[in-house]
Design goal:
With 153 residues, the chain is α+β, with helices and mostly antiparallel strands. It is built from four helices and eight strands, in the order βββααβββαβαβ. It is 27% helix and 33% strand. The longest helix has 12 residues. The N and C termini lie far apart (32 Å). The relative contact order is 0.26.
Length: 153
């Protein structure tokens, strides 16, 4: 699955990440994210190095210092209008453990740590049936390109 960009609804001011699945649907899928996640993503995209680490910076640092490696982010279901996802984390050099995570946080970590995002066909189908909350065009989408990576303090 490709993370295409960030778009903010002109009607509600709600930020969304736009996703394009590789299989299962031709529809663009939207993940609502909070304003703080959108701000963190824009700072990262712009290469801005905050004075203090943001929450996602701390999680990346904790995973790295704990000798853990994220294998992937898996969207495995769509329940009650919400995509369900989990990180698959390698630890003790051989065990892979699924960790539930909010979709917005998982996607931001995927962008930060460069691990793949998977979506099965059935989940894509359920998700694509949801009404698109964006009534306006997507001409103001911020494409997410390879960012300049800030360093942690």
């Amino acid at each position: 699955m490709q993370i295409q960009g960030l778009v903010v609804s002109e009607a509600s001011g709600t930020p969304y990440l736009m996703l394009q699945p590789e299989t299962g649907t031709s529809s663009t899928l939207l993940v609502e994210i909070g304003p703080s996640e959108a701000s963190a993503l824009i700072l990262f995209q712009e290469g801005v190095d905050p004075l203090l680490p943001l929450t996602h910076d701390l999680l990346v640092s904790a995973l790295e210092r704990g000798d853990m490696k994220v294998q992937n982010l898996e969207f495995y279901d769509y329940i009650s209008q919400t995509p369900q996802c989990r990180l698959h984390i390698l630890h003790d050099k051989r065990k892979i453990t699924p960790w539930p995570i909010r979709p917005s946080d998982g996607l931001i970590l995927a962008l930060r740590m460069h691990f793949p995002v998977y979506l099965d066909t059935e989940t894509a189908r359920k998700w694509a049936q949801k009404d698109n909350p964006l009534t306006e065009s997507l001409e103001h989408m911020i494409p997410l390109e390879e960012p300049h990576h800030p360093t942690l303090h």
